[in-house]
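Appendix B. Chain record.
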Amino acid sequence: MRKQVPEKDFSQLFVRVKTWWGMFAVFCMATLFNPIVSLLSLMVLCFFALKEYFSMMKTRKADRRLFLWSYLAIPVQFYWIMIGWYGMFIVFIPVYVFLFLPLPRLLGKGTSGFLRSVSSTQWGLMLMVFGLSHLAYYQFATPEYGANLVLFLVLLTQVNDIVHYLVSLYFGKRKVVPSANPIITWEGFIFAAIITTLVSYFIYPYLTPLDMKFGILSGIIISLSGFFGSLTISVLKRDLLIGDQEKLNVLKESYINRVDSLTYTSPVFFHIIRYYFDFM
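Structure tokens predicted for this chain:
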């Protein structure tokens, strides 16, 4: 394709494919051995994703304690997963961390930029920790099917991302949000949804205990939620990096760009499956 269309820049696509296959290999190794190995590897994934998110924020000295508390929330969140306490897992970050996270900022006596720094930090925790931590809970919610469900989810999210990016770059005409992401197009979204749903239809009997209706529906759910995840991270990134074009260009090949879709697909797919099926 690069030879056929030399004016198109496929460099980001190559990086994206390599990174996704690397992540897929890590997920395979993590899920094939032991749930604790998977738990630890995903905890590290959340840490680096949150760290990179914080690197985009314009911070003050008063924010350092806020970030420390945020990092400490990661092992606590994964501890609830390890002991299987679903109730605390599901409310710890959205309720308790949300309510008490402003404390270190208040104790630091920093009033300037208080709302922006606290709200931006909470958004980072919701996406990079709460959203991604659902990947670890699959194996504890259903030891029999959890590992395969994670592989199913990661594979479909990968397919959706690659097809969306490729079609948008190759055929895309109508930009979704050109000010936030010049690559994402409606053509890419439609083609990605169709391909992801087809792949889901063919692989769901081998990786999941779902019936045909949910096998097809899973592709639609993952494609739609992955689209919103990628779009949300793009808008957040542009907003946080307004006026810093150099850092924005550096982060185009960043780690956070590879997990943006998973921040949405992981929790959405998890809760839909848990609601409709007893094995979760």
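Further analysis of this model is presented in Appendix C.
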